[in-house]
Amino acid sequence: AQSVAQPEDQVNVAEGNPLTVKCTYSVSGNPYLFWYVQYPNRGLQFLLKYITGDNLVKGSYGFEAEFNKSQTSFHLKKPSALVSDSALYFCAVRSYYNQGGKLIFGQGTELSVKP
Amino acid sequence: EAGVTQFPSHSVIEKGQTVTLRCDPISGHDNLYWYRRVMGKEIKFLLHFVKESKQDESGMPNNRFLAERTGGTYSTLKVQPAELEDSGVYFCASSQAGVYAYEQYFGPGTRLTVT
């Protein structure tokens, strides 16, 4: 069965410090991996995706994520956190074999960046 | 370019009543998805349309839920009769036709409360 785990319900970071939001996945075949962010009272916004190629992918707002096949992980990172990065972050996966395209999401991680 | 829109943004109904949620995808997007997030848990897939055809409805919880996409444009999701456990945030997403590696664009969601 396909699944995504975000082991931390909440991550607290001081502004200016690096941040990491963890994600591991389980899927048959090659994974397509995505990160989305939800700001308060807003919908999900696409941040970045890994389809193939370079394991380090860069996305919106200075975020990046590293695909690690051996550890089945796709952690979201940012070198220097901003207070405005505070939001709910979702990791999602789709199997290459799932031609329908439905996404399997993790439970979400609440990121709080303090000044 | 207008994003995915959903109506209403909030709905409060009593158990046993009927509610219809609407989603307008991004113009030209053939793929339309419905997802639901219940009680702070993970976002779960409900169903997928390709144009007006249901491609995958494996996530629909039961026959109280009916989704339509007449003419391949907007979609409606009807819950009849609503139960307490149907409360949650219902998201709609759309993506381009063809290659399913494309990211899905999400609407702001409809928060449904069944009392």
Pick out the low-confidence regions of chain B. Answer: none
Alpha carbon gyration radius of chain A: 14 Å
- Helix/strand-derived category of chain B reads mainly beta
Q: Give the fraction of residues assigned to helices of chain A.
A: under 10%
- Specify the biggest β-sheet of chain B: 7 strands, mixed
**Which residues of chain A form runs of ≥5 with pLDDT under 50?**
none
Count the DSSP helices of chain B. Answer: 0
Largest sheet of chain A: 6 strands, mixed
CATH T-level fold name of chain B? Immunoglobulin-like
In CATH, the architecture of chain B is Sandwich
CATH superfamily of chain A: Immunoglobulins
> What do the pLDDT scores of chain B average to?
92
Number of domains of chain B: 1
Quick structural gist:
Chain A is an all-beta fold and 115 residues long. Chain A contains no helices and 12 strands.
Topology:
The complex is a heterodimer of chains A (115) and B (115).
Chain A (H helix, E strand, L loop, with lengths): L2 E3 L4 E5 L4 E3 L2 E3 L4 E8 L5 E7 L5 E3 L5 E5 L4 E6 L8 E9 L8 E2 L3 E6 L1
Parallel strand pairs in A: 2-12
Antiparallel strand pairs in A: 1-4, 3-9, 5-6, 5-10, 7-8, 8-9, 10-11, 10-12
Chain B lengths: L4 E3 L2 E4 L5 E6 L6 E7 L5 E8 L2 E4 L8 E4 L6 E5 L8 E8 L9 E2 L3 E5 L1
Parallel strand pairs in B: 2-11
Antiparallel strand pairs in B: 1-3, 3-8, 4-5, 4-9, 5-6, 7-8, 9-10, 9-11
Give a written overview of the molecule.
The complex is a heterodimer of chains A (115) and B (115). Chain A has a single domain (3-114), classed as Immunoglobulin-like. Chain A is 0% helix and 52% strand. Chain A contains no helices and twelve strands. Chain A is globular and about 45 Å long. The N and C termini of chain A lie far apart (41 Å). Chain B has strands spanning 5-7, 10-13, 19-24, 31-37, 43-50, 53-56, 65-68, 75-79, 88-95, 105-106, 110-114. In chain B, strands 2, 4, 5, 6, 9, 10 and 11 form a seven-stranded mixed beta sheet that branches. A four-stranded antiparallel beta sheet of chain B has the order 1-3-8-7, with no helix packed on it. With 115 residues, chain B is mostly beta strands. Classes of the chains: A mainly beta (115), B mainly beta (115). The A-B interface holds A 4, 32, 34, 36, 41-46, 49, 51, 90, 92, 94, 98-108 and B 3-4, 6, 31, 33, 35, 40-45, 48, 55-56, 59, 91, 93, 95, 100-101, 103-109.
